[in-house]
Amino acid sequence: MVSSNELLSGMSPDELEALADSKLAPASQTRLDDLLERNSSGGLTADESGELDRLIGQVDQLTILKARARLTLSTQQTGAVAQ
Fold first, then answer.
1. Distance between CA 77 and CA 57 in Å, rounded?
2. Coil vs helix vs strand at 4
3. How far is CA 36 from CA 1, 54, 74, 83, in A?
4. Are 81 and 16 in contact (CB under 8 A)?
5. CB 23, CB 30: distance < 8 Å
6. Average of pLDDT values for 4-19?
7. 80 Cβ contact list (under 8 Å, min separation 6)
8. Can you say whether the dihedral through the CA atoms of 24, 63, 56, 42 is positive or negative?
9. What integer pLDDT is reported at residue 82 of this predicted model?
10. Alpha helices in the chain (DSSP H)
11. Cα(73)–Cα(62) distance, rounded to whole angstroms?
């Protein structure tokens, strides 16, 4: 069973689908890719390292939201929710 506080309530199935399929903005993804590549060779400044950490945090949060959207969609289809 799924806990109701894990679900994204108040969203339509179309909104949940859109969220589940969302991606990091193209400019942010390009910047993340660049920073990751440069980080692997040890070429980041302190500011760039902070920016990389921030972008990775955004990716993590987006991944969590996407998973919750998929969980909510699945639960809406099966009706399995614990209180």
1. 31
2. helix
3. 38, 12, 34, 42
4. no
5. no
6. 92
7. 1, 2
8. negative
9. 52
10. 13-20, 26-40, 46-78
11. 16
What are the distances in angstroms from CA 64 to CA 18, 38, 59, 61, 68? Answer: 14, 26, 9, 5, 6
In angstroms, the CA 57 to CA 52 distance is: 9
Residue type, 2: V
Q: How many CB atoms lie within 10 A of CB 7?
A: 19
pLDDT of residue 57: 98
**CA–CA dist 63, 20 (Å, integer):** 9
Determine if the pTM surpasses 0.90.
Answer: no
- Is residue 83 predicted with pLDDT exceeding 60? no
Region 11-19: mean pLDDT is 96
Is residue 9 a contact partner of residue 2, using CB atoms and an 8 Å limit? no
Residue range 31-58, pLDDT digits in tens = 999 999 999 999 899 999 999 999 999 9
